[in-house]
Predict the structure of Pyridoxal phosphate-dependent aminotransferase.
Amino acid sequence: PESKLPALGTTIFTQMSALAQAHQAINLSQGFPDFDGPRFLQERLAYHVAQGANQYAPMTGVAPLREAIADKTAALYGYRPDADTEVTVTAGATEALYAAITALVRPGDEVVCFDPSYDSYAPAIQLAGGVLKRQALQPPHFRVDWAHFATLLSDKTRLVILNTPHNPSATVWQQADFAALWQAIAARNIFVLSDEVYEHICFAPEGHASVLSHPQLRERAIAVSSFGKTYHMTGWKVGYCIAPAALSAEVRKVHQYLTFSVNTPAQLALADMLREQPEHYRELPAFYRARRDRFVQALAASRFEILPCEGTYFLLADYSAISDLDDVSFCRWLTTEIGVAAIPLSVFFADPFPHKLIRLCFAKQEATLDAAAARLVSL
Ligand code: PMP
Ligand code: GLN
């Protein structure tokens, strides 16, 4: 059949993890921990399964989880979404992003995003018939040029997609960025999709700035998060989105026929976890900061230049001093010959990206990071 997405191949994450496995390389490519999530959470899952919570959950998510999410949001971002009408549990952040884009973007609508951008946005926009307008951010700070941003807006602009803390650049937005975004779109009829899956992995002194903390923006925003990152359980695939009731209603129309509902016992276990162990997400920045610092320190002896990392569990490394290869070839070589798998940065850009940057995931045990660093230092 004629493909609706002719240019689309297998994601770089699947490709690099497969290559890592084939060559028994240390896999710092696809973002997932090589350690397990909290035992309490696993026990609560087993408990709810044993209790017989094994049938369909309500379409919008189980009430205890939606309420726990509303409470957490109020505590962290100073705004309490209505658990019934404004919080929707989804099959990972991926589903929330897809449902939001599908619900909002009409054929011919323009969507603005910032490159490097996470790979699931563009295909969803394309399938909805939308047109992407991209601003390419530049290393090492990857800050938005707000004057340029204004030139990307038109009467056709329907949606802006942002991601903070940002995968793959490891930068974070500040309140000033949200203020600038509001100033640019206030007079226009534009919605905001804010991908905040790394909200609890933020090292900036002022903490994570959420779109939900901005009183005007949140009236137009869909904020997306994921428990996979927070609880070291990327395979559970439970996420959620928060949006005003009218917007949530539109997202739910898509969610209803995309998945209808999400794994029941996992939702109940996550509700218990949020309620009973809030210290877990509060301690997460320190947990990951220690890993980041250990890895950065070990790499100080290498010829890689390490870029600043303000959030996420990814680190960017410049290999200009080591090789002339393009980043895709370098990552393949690094995996097959040196035994460390990484992600090339150019795959997150629509236009050619001339820099020599790779992304390394440090959500790994100390022994894994030390072993990887030893190989990288040898270059
Ligand atoms: N957005 C970003 C920026 C991500 O890094 C990821 C996970 N890699 C997702 C969305 C998807 O999250 P989930 O696994 O919960 O679907
Ligand atoms: N978000 C993960 C990453 O950036 C990958 C998720 C996936 O494999 N689709 O590495």
User: Anything to note?
Assistant: The chain has a mean pLDDT of 98.
